[in-house]
Write a structure and sequence with these properties.
102 residues, four-stranded mixed beta sheet, 36% strand
């Protein structure tokens, strides 16, 4: 299991002391999700990641946010919010939160 898979993601706060690291954000779109998934080592050849559904975009953007937090030395992301939109290229999911270390 990659280190980023251990990162805690919550829409709320943690019930423990932590150090603020940075505010982070990322976006994954219908036309970019496969490359992002491959970069994260997610297997998209079979199973749940075969299609570019909104659920898959959500899963990949969450994984990307965790990966970005790990690169900053964080092990949790608090106050996470997700935004879903649609443009000429298709759907996109953006997310942001505060990376922390506890």
């Amino acid at each position: 299991m990659a280190d980023w898979q251990e990162v805690v993601v919550t829409t709320l706060d943690l019930k423990k002391d932590y150090e603020l690291v940075d505010v982070i954000s990322t976006t994954v779109a219908t036309n970019t999700w496969k490359n992002t998934a491959k970069d994260l080592g997610l297997d998209i050849s079979t199973g749940w990641l075969e299609q570019g559904t909104l659920d898959n975009l959500f899963s990949v953007v969450s994984a990307k946010l965790r990966s970005d937090a790990t690169k900053l030395g964080a092990n949790a992301i608090i106050g996470v919010q997700f935004e879903v939109g649609h443009d000429a290229k298709g759907f996109f999911v953006a997310c942001f939160g505060t990376a922390v270390k506890y």
